[in-house]
Every structure is written in structure tokens, then in C-alpha cells.
Write a structure and sequence with these properties.
Elements: E1 4-6, E2 9-10, E3 17-22, E4 29-36, E5 44-47, E6 51-60, E7 66-86, E8 96-105, E9 112-122, E10 131-135, E11 142-156, H1 170-174, E12 176-181, E13 188-189, E14 194-198, E15 204-212, E16 218-230, E17 236-237, E18 242-243, E19 260-267, E20 274-278, E21 285-292, E22 297-300
Parallel strand pairs: 2-18, 14-17
Antiparallel strand pairs: 1-3, 3-20, 4-19, 4-21, 5-7, 6-7, 7-16, 8-15, 9-13, 9-14, 9-16, 10-11, 11-12, 11-15, 21-22
Length: 309
């Protein structure tokens, strides 16, 4: 039976990612869990020439003879999206906010498999834009300074989203959600032999939510450094599946004072095995878990990245 690769994106209070591959017989109910204790125009500016890196393999036959050869070449290239101008903060407690959608943004390649995504937020000179805590030397009070990548979400317009494709919601209309990042800017990389398929007719969209704690407006770029291989290379395509605490809504929910434990269930419509996982949860979150109800297997997902084989 042919194995069907799938990449799952799991979001709890904003972003997380999983990936699966396997046979249809392994379909099950997966539960996304979060536990909390508090309140919870096309714009691209250039794609640089890719850096190439050959992948070499070696094999030893029954006679003990080892042969080495090059099977594929990976290419790495950063793509800038923007600029995005964020309004100035109105006070220490009220940062400037910018939410914006860009349609038809640049892809790193036209016929390839993406094997890793490395997100960042930068200024026009290429320096990193980030938020930091500043302590007042006289009062000891702490306030935030700088610019924050609250989140960036990429969708593939002409592919149906696994969990929201038929929902009729904004996310359902936006296409397949396949990559996202928060201010932790976690690199998502797939195990060897797997990748996210890109075709020439794919059209990508980008949603950003940015925060500015400075008293002056700031212009920044979302930059993603992609690693990819040719579509002719021996790579299994992954299918993204996004799980969220309210999934097809705004990634938010109201919680009571004190301890709470909230679940959202997804009845699997994309059968397969989990290959990779990463998760994101906002302040006061304790854990993100994925549970295979048919096997009684529960695995906590590291808030940065983990692989589940």
C-alpha cells in the first residue's frame, strides 16, 4: 500500500506544527490540548541567488565494497516580504499594531520540495528586529522595547486546508495553511527524504501581525530562509494539517480564572503517521499535546520543535 505523507500544522493560541506520513489504515482521532492559568498588495523585496549544497550518499554491498555518489542538491535562499510599517506605540502598555494580508507573495522556487523554513524579522539593512525588556534604573520598572513578530502565517491559495477547507470561514477561503512563525522564530526542518511540494501554479498568501513598542513608526520585513531541492529528487511530499484551539476562528478563546484544561478534537481526514511536530503557545500556557485516541498514545510536543516517528 502506498504511504501517504502528511505535514500537520497544530496551533494553540496561535501556532504549532506537526507532520505525518503513513497508510490509510492508520487514521485515528487526534486531540490538540492546551492548559492555561491566565488570560490569555503583494509585497516582496527580492529573492537572492540560492546557495547550493550537494547531498552525498554511500552504500556498502555484500562484498564490502562501498560506493559514494551525489543524489540531490539542496539550495538555500532567503526571501524578504514587506516592507511593513508599524505605527508607533501610544504608551508603554499600548504598542503600535499592524495586521496585514499580502496576496500572491514570492515563492523561493517554482518546481521543488521545501525541506526547511527559517523565519526572521529584520530591518532594511538586514539587522534583526526584535523586542527586549528594558529596566528603568531609577524605578526598577520593566517595559518592552523594539518590534515583535506576533505571528506570520503562509497559505497556499489553490490547495484545500485539511481542517478548514470546507468550513466556509476566512481560513477555509485562504487556502492551505502550511507554515507559520511567532516571535520565537523556530526553524522548521523535515527529516531527510521529506518536503513540502511547490508547483509553478501555486499562489501563496501571507498574513502578518506585528507589534511596535517604540515611540516612532518602524518599517520591517518578514524574512524566510528556505532550503529546497528539485522536484525531480527522491522526496516524499508532506501534507500540512493545522490544529488550533478554535481552529477555523481567530486562534483565541476565553478562559476562567485559575486552572483550565481545554480540548479541541480533529477527526482525521488525512490518514498517515506523524513525522514531525512543533508547537507554539502564548503566555500562561503550560503544554501542547497530541493524542492518538485509537492507541492511547499521548506525546507532549516541545514548544520549539520535535520529531515524532
Amino acid at each position: 500500500m502506498r504511504r501517504i505523507p502528511v505535514l500537520i500544522t497544530m496551533v494553540v493560541l496561535m501556532v504549532a506544527m506537526l507532520a505525518i506520513v503513513g497508510s490509510p489504515a492508520q487514521a485515528a482521532t487526534t486531540t490538540g490540548t492546551t492548559t492555561t492559568t491566565g488570560t490569555g498588495t503583494t509585497g516582496t523585496t527580492g529573492i537572492t541567488s540560492p546557495v547550493t549544497s550537494p547531498i552525498t550518499t554511500s552504500a556498502t554491498d555484500a562484498t564490502g565494497t562501498t560506493t559514494t555518489g551525489t543524489t540531490a542538491t539542496t539550495l538555500t535562499t532567503p526571501v524578504r516580504y514587506g516592507p511593513f510599517t508599524i505605527p508607533a506605540a501610544s504608551s508603554d502598555d499600548m504598542p503600535g499594531m499592524l495586521e496585514q494580508v499580502r496576496l500572491g507573495v514570492t515563492k523561493p522556487c517554482q518546481d521543488c520540495y521545501i525541506t526547511s523554513f527559517k523565519p526572521d524579522l529584520i530591518y532594511s539593512d538586514g539587522s534583526t528586529a526584535n523586542v527586549s525588556n528594558v529596566t528603568d534604573p531609577y524605578t526598577g520598572s520593566v517595559k518592552q522595547s523594539g518590534v515583535m513578530l506576533h505571528h506570520a502565517v503562509f497559505t497556499n491559495q489553490f490547495r484545500s486546508d485539511a481542517t478548514c477547507g470546507s468550513s466556509g470561514t476566512l481560513w477555509g477561503l485562504a487556502g492551505e495553511r502550511f507554515f507559520a512563525a511567532g516571535n520565537e522564530r523556530t526553524t522548521i526542518g523535515f527529516p531527510a527524504g521529506y518536503g513540502y511540494r511547490v508547483r509553478w501554479w501555486d499562489s501563496w498568501n501571507l498574513l502578518v501581525d506585528l507589534m511596535n513598542h517604540e515611540t516612532q513608526p518602524k518599517s520591517v520585513y518578514v524574512q524566510v530562509t528556505y532550503t529546497y531541492t528539485s522536484a525531480s529528487d527522491p522526496v516524499e511530499p508532506l501534507k500540512p494539517v493545522w490544529l488550533d484551539i478554535d481552529n477555523c476562528g481567530d486562534s483565541e478563546y476565553s478562559i476562567p480564572y485559575g486552572y483550565s484544561d481545554t480540548h479541541w478534537d480533529w477527526n482525521v481526514n488525512v490518514p498517515g503517521n506523524v513525522i514531525a511536530a512543533a508547537a507554539h503557545v502564548h503566555g500562561h500556557g503550560i503544554a501542547v499535546e497530541a493524542t492518538n485516541e485509537s492507541r492511547g498514545v499521548r506525546r507532549s510536543v516541545d514548544l520549539k520543535r520535535s520529531w515524532i516517528r
